[in-house]
Structure formats: structure tokens, C-alpha cells
Amino acid sequence: PIKPQGISKGSNIKGIKVNWGQAKTFINDRFEALQKSVGQLSKNKLAYDGPDVNYKSSTQKPLEPTKNQIEVRKYYSGTEPENSSGAMGKSKNSSGTGNNGNEKLNKNGLTPEQEKHYRQKIDEAKARGDQKAADDARYERHREEKENRGEKPLNRKDWDTINERLRKNRERGREEEIKGRKALEEHLDRKLEDNNADEVVTYTSSEGHVTRPDSIARNNKGEIDLVHDHKHKAGEDQIVHNDSQIRAEREMLRDKNGRHVVTISSDKPDLNAIPPKPRPSGPLGDKSDIYYTDPNSGKVTHKWEPNPRLPGGGRWKKL
Q: What percent of the chain has pLDDT over 90?
């Protein structure tokens, strides 16, 4: 049972039995779900306004609040735990770059400063060919992410096991990235810089996301006028999304006529399917140039033509 609409605090309605204990729990649960969905909300808009429950005069056993409900209440009362984080945007930790609690965390659980710090450490180690240093920096980043969220990080042994699986995926992705860059160079008849070697170029977006595209090209003024990223789809999910990384890459362009290009390849292509597989999301297809590269031939074979009237938001046009 929940509070009937229109009943205000302290109301005494004859003939209506309202279980205020369950109502309070129900409303708090809904508040928690909404808070997770849309970020920090105004407590006043969702506050429970029913009368306090006097369990001494009630035969019903009170329902215990969940841990998350307690943290939500402590947050709004100004007594949140030191390690509370996540959607609340408040955290405290003692490692790495630190977070003084005034900066919001991104989806990875890091502040923009922390993400930039670890991205730079990893890229510098990779440029030196020092895989151990790169993994050490990745593990430090993992610990910082977890501590920011008030969670327990994995120990190094368990993390190394998971990282080894991820390394194999990265190596496969690196192979496909090289193919994608070479295919695009041939298609555009233009040399692209490998942004994993020599001087690595990174960019922090207006959203606080640190990105490092796979390839870049510059105009005669030395300005970046082409940013390229390759995506290889190997699983069931065959959609490339317009995520924060992609949006940050488009921001990198300094030339007003610059191009953001995404090449896509797949282990399970069905370009004529309805909808096609793989494919870009609607926003990505609208805002970037999208090409399909054949992993076997190493050639650009199709260009994406966005069309909102078609299933999947467009079609692949054979070149």
C-alpha cells in the first residue's frame, strides 16, 4: 500500500488504512532507482511527507532500509560516508592523483584529471615498449576507480588474470586497427599518423573524457584536420555507438572543414541484413564519415549512407 494521492502530512482519513512504514520504504526504493537513472535529484521533489511511524504502538515489524537507502539519506543530511561516490559525485581516496570530493566522476569512476594522468602514463609506457609499466599503470587506475566508488579493488593476481584476457583482445584490436588505417590511407590517398607511436596526441573533451584516436592527419598549417578511429566487432553486439570517446574525437578537429572518420570491420558481417551488421548508431552515422573495411582483403569496400527511414538508420553503399 502506498500513500493515496492528495493526502498530506498528518492527515486523518476515516476508513482508509495506510501502512506508512511500507509506504516510506516503497518511496525510498523509487527514489533510489530514479537517482541512479538520472543522477543527483532534488530531494525536496521526492521527499516522503507522511507522518512518522510509531512502531511502539504498531504490531507490524519495521522494514529495514537497504544500504543504498541509508547512504542516500546520509548524503542529503550531510553525513555521507567518506568513501561515498558514484552518481552523488562525492568521493575521497588516498592513492594516485587523489580526488578532493569537488570533482564529478566519469562513467569509469575517475575525475578528468585522474583519467588524463593514467592515460598519459599508459601511453608513455607503451611508446617505450615497457609493457610491465603500462600494466602497473592500468592496475593503479583500477584501484583508483574502485576507491573512488567506495568499492574494494581486485588483488593484483586476480587483476592480472583478467588483464591477460583483455590483452589478447587489445592485440586483436590493434591488428584490425592497423588494417583499418592502411585501408583508409589507400582509399583517401592520404598518409595518416599512427597515434600509438612516437608523439602520442591525447585530448580532454568538454565532458572530461580523455581520448587518444587511432590515427590523425594535419593540414598545411599543422592543424589536425582528420581524426580516425577503427572499431572491430567480434561478438553479437554489432553496433558502434556515438559514445563519449567518439564525441571527444570530433572536438579535436581544429580545421572547420575537418573530418571525423570511423572505419568498421567485423567477424560476422551481414551488410545487406535488415538492419545491417555491423553498423553505426543513428547519431554516429549522421555526424561522422563511416566506412566498412573487409578484414580479409584489407580494403575499404562500403560507405555508410544514413537514412532514418530505413531499419538501423541507414545502409551500406558498395564502393
A: 46
